[in-house]
Amino acid sequence: MLEARPVPTPSPASSPVSLAAPPDPAWWRGAAIYQLYVRSFADSDGDGTGDLPGVLARLPYLAELGIDAIWFNPWYPSPMSDAGYDIADYRDIDPVFGTLADADAVISEAHALGIRIIIDIVPNHGSDQHQWFREALAAGPGSAARTRFHFRNGLGRSGELPPNNWQSIFGGPAWTRVTEADGRPGQWYLHLFAPEQPDFNWASPEVRAEFEDVLRFWFERGADGIRIDSAALLTKDPALSDIDGPDAAGSRPSGSGPAERAHPYQDRDDVHEIYRSWRAVADAYPGRVLIGEIWLPDAARLARYVSPGELHAVFNFPYLTCAWDAARLREVIDGTLALHTPVGAPPTWVLSNHDVDRIVSRYGRSKTSFSLQARDHSQPVDLALGTRRARAAALLTMALPGSVYVYQGEELGLWEVEDIPAELRQDPIWHRTSGRDPGRDGSRVPLPWAGPEPPFGFSPPGATGRPWLPQPAGWREVTVEREAGDPGSMLELYRRALRIRRAEPALGDGPMSWRPDPDGASGASGASGASGVLAFDRRAADGGGDGAGVSCVANLSGGPVSLPAGAEVLLASSPLDGGLLPPDTTAWLRVQGGPAAG
Ligand code: GLC
Predict the structure, then answer these.
(1) How many A from CA of 273 to the centre of ligand 1?
(2) Which of 85, 190, 199 to mutate to test the pocket of ligand 1 (most atoms within 8 A of CB)?
(3) What ranges make up the beta strands (E) of 43-192?
(4) What is the pTM of this model?
(5) What residue ranges in 324-386 does DSSP mark as E strands?
(6) Pocket of ligand 1 (CB under 6 A)
(7) What pLDDT digit, counting tens, does each position of 348-362 carry?
(8) Which residues are part of the catalytic machinery?
(9) Which of 220, 282, 333, 390 could join 288 via S-S bond, C-beta 3.0 to 4.6 A?
(10) If DSSP states are collapsed to H, E and C, what string results for 139-178?
């Protein structure tokens, strides 16, 4: 039986704790990273919104879960027009979440528990309440203050039309007209997202210097990594030319010819200069990493972001959006490895996040893929099937080579809350599309910790505020209290998997090789994936440990499959059936004679 590394006991609050994380400069290559959405994690003061003291109190839960790092969604002062992705001050904490001292306490206590901290920086846009934007409004057309953003005169006889045809990613035009100091309608400013999120002008040296300084600020405070929001959108065509065709809303065309490359704001060549400078900043602080949020269908273009001297890693959106289908997953996994291997960057594996439907619901629908452009909450959901598949997907994902992300609540098997009343919805996507797009609130509902009814321990007894989004009554079955210690629960599956993954040198970073389908029932190539089964071997790159390695077999076919002869099952997502691996089940195996010999 594998032994997990012991979890260190938290140090008492009074002891002096270093802000620095334990040394291991390559920690990120195989890390398990927990995405923590502060406003929905744990509410310490009873106002219905999660906060940093709430996180501090629950750090032992995360240590016990077995994760290596936490990625915090934005925690800065913000009017919360886009749940904190509209930042008014990049060097402070929003009072609803706490103070800088609370952030320091979370960082140092997490470090004492062996957990690293990744924070979210939003460089494409700020908030309309950011000091720079207020200065720009006050200073008027032609001022230096306006060059930090994209201000332009409008078209039409009296400037009443937006400067170009770009559409906001959240719906509606990407331009808003301001009222000038004299009370007249004036210039327009660009916002690729909501009007409260004006885009910074990355051609401005001041903008560049400011963000490098913000990186240093957080590295000095002990942050171990930065998640870079909307990382491919920063630089714009200086002419701000119209987008041709129906795609004014701007998802990058799938080709990579010169015409597509010249997209006026997606993945422009000059964005890479920014990340080369950021990398130089990060490299001055050992062990610090940059992780890009980049939605690009073109693998070759994506690879440029993780080439030497740029970002350490990028999120794997092709994997996140892929259907529960062995052949499709095999294609995405191969594509991911082909992209990362030549540049030496570790892949990342992500099943869900705060922008997409929760995986249990997705896998319980007839259409199991996900698209940002086509969220659909009208389909029936089979939660039992979705949960079974989510369990199998968790083991598949955690066995793949590289780092893995767990979005809070995924470890409890939470489902998408699809029936939030319109008046309680917060997401600008819902509001800006008049509810045509259900938006992202359903994946952001506060966590259920304990007890039979809302707020399920999310807020303390006697709380004055209700959870900021309503929790479904059915979550009584999936609280931490209910799941802890139940060997059949999602929580215990994640705990066991993460502990094995951490203790086993073959898992995490390192090579993998596909096995032939166990039943030999595959197509002409005999390749894993062809008959609905994904099977691969992991062996430590340096032959570390006992050299035995681990094999993973995921059965996405309609019938049971046999396992390699002599396999010892380390962990399975559902019980085996007479020695066979049932449908929608994944198993981790120790195969006699080493992984390749089964
Ligand atoms: C990213 C974030 C998303 C946010 C958007 C605008 O995609 O993940 O939540 O709304 O950027 O900042």
Answers:
(1) 22
(2) 85
(3) 69-72, 116-121, 151-152, 175-179, 185-190
(4) 0.93
(5) 348-350
(6) 82, 85, 122, 193, 229-230, 293, 354-355
(7) 999 999 999 999 999
(8) 229, 293
(9) 282
(10) HCCCCCHHHHECEECCECCCCCECCCCCECCCCCECEEEE
